[in-house]
Input
Amino acid sequence: MTVRKSMLLALGLVLSCGVAQANTFKWASNTDPQTMDPHAVNSAPVLGFLNNVYEGLVRRNQTMVVEGALAESWEPLGDKGWRFNLRKGVKFHDGSDFNSEDVLFSYQRASSEAADTASWFAPVSEVKVVDDYTIDFMTKVANPLFPSSIANFMIMDKGWTEGNGAALPSKDKENHATLNANGTAAFQLAERQPGLKTVLTPYGGWWGKTEHNITRAEFTPIQNSATAVAALLSGNVDMVNPAPIQDAARLKQSGGVKVIEGIEARVIMLGFPHQADSLKFGTDAGKPNPFKDVRVRKAVAHAVNVDAILQTIMRGNAQPASQLVSPAMSGYSSANADRPAFDVAGSKALLSEAGYADGFSFGLKCPNDRYLNDEAVCQAVVSMLAQIGVKAELDAMPVRTYWPELRKDAYDMYLLGWSPGTFDAEHPIRFLAHTPNAEKKLGSWNFGDFSNSRIDEMLAPIQSEIDPAKRQAMLDEAAKILQDQVAYVPLYVQPLVWGARDNIELTQRPDNFFILRWVTVK
Amino acid sequence: MLAYSIRRVVQSIVVLLVVGLVAFSMFRFVGDPIDNMLGQERTDADIERLRGELGLDRPFVVQYGRFLTNAATGNLGVSYRQGRPVASILMERAPATLELAAVSGLFAIVLGVALGVFTAIRRNGIAANLIMTISLVGVSLPTFLIGILLIYLFAVELGWLPSFGRGDTVKLGGWSTGFLTSSGLKALILPSITLGLYQMTLIMRLVRSEMLEVLRAEYIRFARARGLRERAINFHHALKNTLVPVITVTGLQLGSIIAFAIITETVFQWPGVGLLFINAIQFVDIPVMAAYLMLISVMFVGINLIVDLLYFAIDPRLRVDRTVTEG
Output
């Protein structure tokens, strides 16, 4: 009896799957979004996933340009702040109306102490509700970039969130918003099993124009890259992000599958200890720190053959980088687009000029699970530096121990990748180039304590300058200083490799966000 | 008997506490969870604040003590990664691992005993030799390789079975089972074979050698002389007498099937506690790591304790020896 019952049940499930199969889209990624709360965690897997469920006042289109989402339009209030005119007639997934109270509530929630997203609102002095569909974000100083800096600030419904006891995001205990979602975006959360499966279904009441033809979307995290590739090849999933770069060529050759390549917003670079007095690793440990001399840093920049790294390790998928942001970012300095040429002789000349004709030995710290093929890149750097007589001892480690090492200044040179959260050149200046200042929350990732008074002085004007030409002039100057001083050696822009079945059309955005409403299943 | 039991129980508890202490002293070397918990825009002050809130700035002995006092009240803490209670996460994940372990255990025992008997009876047959040779492969190939090979053969090339995951599950109370759906059953096949293959070959070889031993025994010859049928001799007389050591080994192997499901679960993205543990290591999710390690050690120590107590109950020589030495 029970056997027959379960057979019937199984049959029913098979049939019900068969009907929906045509437009069920399944995709896999190596990380599960750890929460469904858009303000609890500021990490790409969470924000990228939730962009399908929640919406911000503004959003980014296929080419990263900011466009209206829940705000139809916005205008500066002189240099005091920004007014957002909200879209009317928008409803949350549970049917309740969207208005400026929800924006104010979301602002309070997202900028609270408990939220991981509070730093987005550091420039904000006050938020004022003007009427049901108008809201003002007042800033402490003029802030031309504010609207585009809050593209991932997602709006929650005040009634739903408070009514379910989730008025504040929480990290150390579960609340309703950890597992449930009520957004306004094109998809709603149908099922959430953390680490297992998350199901989204199209939201019929969405305000926008539907471009996709998905009836059901299932997300599964798959950690092991070989398993992910097998799942794609066997058709168990329709898309994987990322596809392992070493399998890209093979995937292209196998039938039914295609590879979508692009470049990410992330620039990979080498960093130096700018203030340390002595080397800490290698046979020269304890001797004076040669990287304080700009000629030595220049020699390193000229010794690394980035093209060779890209050809061999990245299989031609990445792009060399000249500065801390990629050309796709706003504020990129075209005037400083040249990167130091690969020049062993020139590099050696610089070293002997600096008094290191016989080279020296030092320790290179590197993560081995943070960036694409990061350890292999570091090994290549080691062998390239050996050609100019500099002996690097490589110490590669998982990222979970890597950051603490860098914070302890336990390195002589390190590898860092930086993706500007605002997609603007100001971002790395604030985090990587400004002199570290805990109080002002500046230079918080500037492990090497690079310090340049002109850079420090220009940051605030760059942040508040409204005239684009004047602003770009300052960004150009900053990029030039960072290049001349070799604050970092930018190597390349990290590639983005996704794999998909042939019948899937999708858009790959440089921030590695996967947006479901641009997917069509043929 | 009572004194012996009490002593063994106390010893087991001490072992558990020591395992926990060692685990906690190791967590520092796994890495620092703080960077994973805070976003790109974190400041040093945020790092210090969170470290203080989580108690990570305290010595590991203090952290361990706090874990123990909480665990004693049934509170296993909250996952750093998911922000949810560890106990409920473990409850969600346990059925997947237990069902996988049960099926692969069954596979290992049934096939292991059957093939063991077969290879013992047909000691010189071609088929038996072939099986013995192939079983060497099963013992020597690492689990993840077997898993990947099976995936490529049966999922990618032939397309018969799913390449990952658990298929559809049905909720029965708090237990999610994959036994009741066709996709759930199909999804069980490859991971069970991968996980059970080693145990299967182990049992097979054990049964074979025990069986060969027994078949040489005098009472088998007497049975033959009595004119009993081969079938009755092999299965009734011989097999039964080979099973005592087999049962002991199998019981102990059950624990390792659950504990070492980690690799199989990673290869097949099987959503069990092993995969949870791997995730936890990557994120340095200390509450989850601690709970998992304690759970596994409770299981191992528990099984060993039961086995010890059973020996004592079953084997009269143990008792005799003890009274003699103590008397």
The radius of gyration of chain A is 25 Å. Chain A touches chain B through 58 residues (CB under 8 Å). Chain A has a mean pLDDT of 91. The first strand of chain A starts at residue 24 and ends at 29.
